[in-house]
Amino acid sequence: MKQLWFCIALLTTLVGYCQSFIGAWEMESTTPEGEDYTSVVIFTEGYQVLATYNSETGKFISTNGGTWKLDGNIMTEKVEFNSGNPEMVGEVVSFEVFIEGDNMGIVGTDMKFKRIDDGTPGELEGAWLMSGRVVNDKLQLRDTDTPRKTMKILSGTRFQWIAYNTDTKEFMGTGGGNYTTVDGVYTENIKFFSRDDSRVGASLKFDFNLKDGNWHHTGFSSKGDPLNEIWSKRK
Q: What is the DSSP string of the chain?
């Protein structure tokens, strides 16, 4: 009986350890030149993204991400995009990680993050791929299995979108910040945007709803253009 209880307790600990990474984490750092940087990593089930930007101006610095899995305290990631080092795309990297309360990081490095959220309360937590658009009242579907992807990863309060190509290793752009989902309205507050720093600080509101597991997203882009998108949960 004691052995059974020990096995149950051990299994519960391991499951909790794995799930505790889900959500958003933040790290503040200062460069030798005195610039303050913010780094945010978002973990969803099976997918993750890390972005770094200037804390004061929102100027985009870098991003990377892809798939992840955990075996004990060893995290293994397969790189799908890397804005600063595209040759890393396709590489598999493993490293030792730790969690202590609301802190987590990579053992043997200065990378130590504080928890922002645990995947709640936003209704759209997860990794999504753009799977369609409505243009001039016509539905245009997109094959989500192609190397060219537009992915959006959301924790309970943070979001980041990334456009990239796993075959060419090309990184096309990204943006992110925090978000809310209230009464069918999805609101983004932009903290960084690789294509145009002037968008930083903007707040954008969209109507959203979930149909058959797909996220339907309508409103206006950061440029003011009409927007009607469909996103599918990544599996």
A: -HHHHHHHHHHHHHHHHHHTT-EEEEEEEE-TTS-EEEEEEEEETTEEEEEEEETTT--EEEEEEEEEEEETTEEEEEEEEESS-GGGTT-EEEEEEEEETTEEEETTSS-EEEEEESS-S-TT-EEEEEEEEEETTEEEE--TTSSEEEEEEE-SSEEEEEEEETTTTEEEEEEEEEEEEETTEEEEEEEEETT-GGGTT-EEEEEEEEETTEEEEEEE-TTS-EEEEEEEE--
